[in-house]
Amino acid sequence: EILISKSDLQEKDTAMKELKTRVYELNMENEYQLRLKDMNHHEKTKELTEKFIQEMESLKTKNQVLKTDKDKEEAKHEEERQELIERQHQELQDLESAKQSETHGRVREISGVASKESENAGGVRTSAYCQVRVA
Question: What is the pTM of this model?
Fold first, then answer.
């Protein structure tokens, strides 16, 4: 059995009410701060997401441009390769034609020399000198 004066009891009751009020205010402040942090977090997340989406779209566009450039370069190189092949083929044909003409000219020259020799020799050896095969 404890005897407490009425004023002490009222002071303690008042102090307890003040403390309860203070606890309530602190809880409310904490909840407010948490909501603020949550809102800030969501806002940052939204900003970062938008930034990364824009960056991703930019990279997709850049990638498409690079792919188009690559395709153009490949087509250009293929066309140049075909032209080179055609030019080399034409040069080869020209060289073969020139060589064949040269060979025919030599054959005619040799035939002419052989026929002159045969005329001078009396026509006996004509067939031996004129047999030249053209490849």
Answer: 0.50
